[in-house]
Structures are given as C-alpha cells and as structure tokens.
Specification:
By secondary structure, the protein is mainly α. It has helices at residues 22-44, 49-82, 88-98. The longest helix has 34 residues, at 49-82.
C-alpha cells in the first residue's frame, strides 16, 4: 500500500493501528452477505443442507480475503468524512517537516 495519495498527499496510515478499523467493515459486510446468501438459498431450496453449509463457509472464508483492500478504502473514506485530512496535529507535523 502506498504511504500517501499521489493526488492530494494524504497519509494513509495516520498512526499505529490506524487501519484496524477496516476490520469492522470487512467483518460486517461479510456477515451480512453470508446471512443473506444462506437464507436466500435455504428458502429457495436449490441446495441440500451440507451443500449450503459448505457454500456459506467458502463465502465466509474467501470473501474477506478479496474484500480486504475495499474495506481499507471504506475505512479511510469513513475517517476522512469524520476527521478530514490534515487535522491540526498533522498540519503541525507538515509544517515541522517542511522547515
């Protein structure tokens, strides 16, 4: 992952553990997707119980791996909305770095 945005210069990792919030997006969307898929296929009756369980487990294991980068992007967008870049501390750091 790049350290800064090429367009605006925003630092993507603002501090230790900053991107851990993306786990909440990844987990929440994965859980919602698995529940919707499971009950949709359960009530449609297209798959047997074992097939349904295996398919749901595969979705629950593979989707988060694929969705990882998008969860990070969602977390950064969420944070940018509530705490726009640069905040006061980052402005002081940029000023110190430029001197």
């Amino acid at each position: 992952m790049h350290e800064t945005c090429f367009h605006c210069g925003r630092r993507f990792e603002r501090g230790p553990g900053y991107l851990l919030g993306s786990i909440y997006f990844n987990y929440g969307i994965t859980a919602l997707l698995v529940v919707v898929i499971y009950f949709s296929l359960f009530y449609a009756g297209w798959l047997g119980d074992t097939q349904l369980l295996v398919f749901s487990a595969l979705v629950a294991l593979l989707f988060p791996v694929w969705f990882f980068r998008y969860a990070r992007a969602l977390w950064i967008a969420f944070d940018e909305h509530w705490d726009p870049w640069p905040n006061e501390e980052e402005k002081r750091q940029i000023k110190r770095d430029s001197e």
